[in-house]
Design a protein that fits this description.
Blueprint (H helix, E strand, L loop, with lengths): L1 H28 L10 E2 L8 E2 L2 E4 L3 H14 L3 E4 L15 E4 L6 E5 L4 E5 L4 H8 L4 E3 L10 H7 L15 E7 L5 E5 L4 H7 L8 E11 L2 E10 L3 H10 L4 E8 L9 E9 L18 H13 L1 H14 L5 E5 H4 L14 E11 L3 H15 L2 E10 L14 E11 L2 H20 L3 E2 L9 H7 L3 H11 L8 H6 L2
Parallel strand pairs: 3-5, 4-5
Antiparallel strand pairs: 1-2, 6-7, 7-11, 8-11, 9-10, 9-11, 12-14, 12-15, 13-14, 13-17, 16-18, 16-19, 17-18
Length: 486
Amino acid sequence: MRGKVFLKKKVLVILLILFMGVYGVFFVYSFQHKDDDQHLMSDVGRLVPVKVREVVQGQEVDQMKDLLREAEDKNLKISIAGKQHSQGGHTYYKDAIVMDMTTFNKVLKVDEKEKVVTVQSGATWEDVQKAVNPYGLSVKTMQAPNIFTVGGSMSVNVHGRDIRYGPLIESIKAFRLMNADGKILNVSRNENEELFRLVHGGYGLFGIILDVDIELTDDVLYRVENEWIDYHDYPEYFKEKVLANPEVDMHNSRISVAPNYFLTEMYVTNYYLEKQGKKLEDYNELQDEKFVRRNKFAFGLSRKFDWGKNFVWYVQKHAFKDGKVEWTSRNNVMRPEIKFLDYEGKNDTDILQEYFVPINEFPNFIDRLRDILEEEHLNVLNITVRYVPENEEAFLSYANQDMFALVFLINQGTSEKEIEKSGKTVRKLIDLVLDFDGSYYLPYYHYPSKTQMKEAYPNADLFFEKKREYDTEERFVNQFYEEYGK
């Protein structure tokens, strides 16, 4: 009897090993698909491939002026690109010259006394962190990953984990902008103020962002603690135990997409100011991402299998258990694991969607969201929840009141049929968001209808009018503008 049991276990182990081997081969192969056409451009979403005229790396201001003169003489269009993590063709256009700003990336000055750093717009947030960390300084607002360019982040007006600061526009002091005529303008809240509000969240439609003055804050040490809560209790928990607690600077949460706990379980991560005991200097060395291959492999399971999603959530439950305490610096909070999410499947891709919902509506929204997702079978891999305070300074503001932002990571096929299927579901989700007086984020694939866009962004028509007013020849364009602005 024992021999039979042992044999069964041995067979199961062998089958598991074979499965993992086959999956591993598939996993590696799925990343080999690359397009060799150097003029066929796409972004990280890979859903809007377009033939462009050429890609020019921006390095000198005079070079950019010459490029604008050439574009005027030949009646050419220009698009502006950074790391290209927008997913709706925001960084290129058919037959356009694409200005690649990632080589215009110097950190020009760190003013320790005024707590301001000046950088060229192609510098990444990692470049900024490396420059300011030795001074005991840190960025106020940025995406949690530090891989994006400053100019790109301004163009989508990002928000971050810090609950005490709103969208990026709040911490940009001033910048220089090269307009369609090649003229360099100083832009701030005191000079060319309207452009200040248009360029933030302006998706590169008003000119080339050159150098930027960014306000900084002190790097500090955080005590990191996790709690598991019922999603029904989240609004009150957040308002009473997080937002009202001056010791909490940063906050993040996730709600389960695992089939066994679908949109029911959630955990929160709070970052408390550490004022005694531990010292910042013991934790402020900038950390790099670890275990990328392992995490990439495990997360890949959740793309293909429901049990993979359950497995990933099981791992999170043990990794982020109640009572577990860690310490980290502010700068390292903004260097989270992200490389393991890089994915270029042959027939599928990962896309992002982000929806903004008023805080008090969160539980009701989740209940209705669950119904739609279960009906439509959208392959959601992760939902992160963040807080976004009210800020309407940018023309295309996404927060007309205090909001929770739900950031969706979704896997979908790249065929026309799969794109159409995802689009139908996304439009349902946006209708749901609009029912709650919410909004959605614009840097992603153009699934939303024009009607939905105008309802979510009441200033949209005025924004596009201003674009044509400042850029009469429509020199700066992209696929996003083609879809919604014309």
